[in-house]
Design a protein that fits this description.
alpha/beta; Dihydrodipicolinate Reductase, domain 2; 6-stranded parallel sheet; 17% strand; 9-stranded mixed sheet; 2 domains; globular; 437 residues
């Protein structure tokens, strides 16, 4: 969010924020501007999955805790992470060794999507609070299971949809909740194109990688480098392409702003193509999905156009993405501001934290909110239930594309309406020994 003074100077601030994001990570603002806890108040942290995003969230957590255990199934990644975060940290390949440790209070999960549910559920049952990367699940039934287990165990689970702490997205949500657009009828959400490619070569499994454990619940398959690490997200075996990757961020903001993050669409209308390439990426290409909600709101989720979210209401339009928020209602804030202190979209805001813009800075406040809730036992801003609903909406888009037809959904029962075939897609077959629930 932006306070009243900041909002009056929005354009100037935006330029400054954009400039700050061009700096190397080491020179960006850090947790130094927040209270440093005494040693006996600091978290004892265990981090699972240490490739790019896992390392990013671990770096932010260091301000509040000590990285005592590090887990990854790639030995090279594991050694690099220990060198980066704590040369005396214990390293393990099996995450069960981490979550069962008495030296761990909080677990960070940066593993690929198909491991999110299993690791989060096991960590909650082991008595740990969890920071879980988005999307929350690989399937709709997995998301419901995480929400149920978090409630049963009383653990705090924060999902990594950090855009809720980027002031541009926060301002869009605040303005919409405050009625500055009147009744909003449509959100157009542009995600970007899925990678396409293949067939890719099958090669020997690298000696440092436990491929069986990396695959987890997914089917056993020969090793193809493009299935692993960053590009795993373009295979339905492990993720959902841009629909669940960028979609977990942008769809989240749209549902949050419009008060839909505890429900879901009732109708999903797809257009798209599925590649038919053996040993190649298999997520949809050239896709668009129209969604209708019970209150009359419509979503258009597209892979082409200006990346971001366009909200259309009776009184105007707002466009927002990671670089800008624009529209006549935004311009009108100069003469009719929306003070930060008078309107909140989250009940447990810590207004002592400065406003942030951009991934690395917004993550500071997002991790800080997690810490606040671990201390207070309150619900974090990216709650497990809201993120299950967001991921469900994204999964529904993918399921409609895969089935190639319109789907009708009951968000109360979380089942398709008179569609037994579609109901079979609510879960996946899980490889023996890696069952999620």
């Amino acid at each position: 969010m932006m306070n009243q003074s900041t909002r009056r100077q929005f354009l100037q601030f935006g330029a400054a924020a954009t400039a700050s994001l061009s700096l190397p990570i080491g020179t960006r603002s850090t947790f130094a501007d927040q209270a440093v806890k005494s040693p006996n108040e600091r978290w004892r942290v265990g981090a699972i999955g240490m490739r790019y995003q896992g390392s990013v969230i671990t770096r932010q957590a260091q301000a509040f805790g000590d990285i005592n255990l590090i887990c990854d199934v790639d030995r090279h990644v594991l050694e690099q992470a220990r060198a980066s975060f704590n040369s005396s940290a214990k390293i393990v390949e099996d995450y069960h060794d981490l979550i069962s440790s008495k030296d761990i209070d909080v677990v960070l999960i940066g593993a690929p999507d198909h491991w999110h549910a299993k690791m989060a559920i096991d960590a909650c049952r082991a008595g740990k609070d969890v920071y879980l990367e988005k999307p929350i699940s690989l399937t709709i039934e997995e998301g419901r299971a995480i929400s149920r287990v978090a409630a049963e165990t009383g653990r705090v689970v924060q999902v990594g949809t950090w855009q809720r702490h980027d002031q541009r997205f926060r301002l869009a949500a605040e303005m919409i909740r405050a009625g500055r657009l009147g009744k909003v009828t449509k959100a157009t959400i542009v995600l970007g194109k899925n990678l396409q490619g293949g067939p890719f070569a099958q090669v020997p499994i690298p000696k440092q990688l436990n491929w069986d454990r990396w695959l987890g619940q997914a089917p056993m398959t020969p090793y193809i480098p493009e299935r692993c690490h960053y590009t795993f997200r373009f295979w339905y075996d492990y993720a959902g392409g841009e629909m669940t990757d960028t979609g977990a961020h942008h769809v989240d903001i749209a549902m949050w702003a419009l008060g839909l993050d505890n429900t879901g669409p009732t109708q999903i209308i797809p257009q798209g193509k599925l590649p038919n390439v053996v040993d190649g990426y298999n997520v949809a290409k050239d896709f668009s999905v129209q969604m209708k909600f019970a209150n009359g709101v419509e979503f258009a989720i597209l892979d082409t156009g200006r990346n971001g979210i366009l909200f259309e209401g009776e009184l105007g339009r707002i466009f927002v993405n990671r670089g800008i928020i624009s529209g006549t209602p935004v311009d009108e804030l100069k003469s009719n501001p929306l003070p930060r202190e008078s309107f909140q979209v989250y009940a447990h805001d810590n207004l002592s934290r400065p406003e942030r813009a951009g991934k690395y800075d917004a993550l500071i406040n997002h991790m800080g909110n997690f810490y606040d809730c671990v201390q207070s036992r309150k619900t974090p801003i990216s709650s497990v239930e809201s993120q299950h609903r967001v991921a469900t909406t994204c999964h529904l888009g993918n399921l409609a594309l895969r089935l190639g037809r319109t789907l009708n959904w009951n968000p109360d029962t979380e089942r398709f309406i008179n569609d037994a075939e579609a109901d079979t897609y609510l879960r996946r077959e899980q490889r023996k020994g890696y069952e999620v629930v």
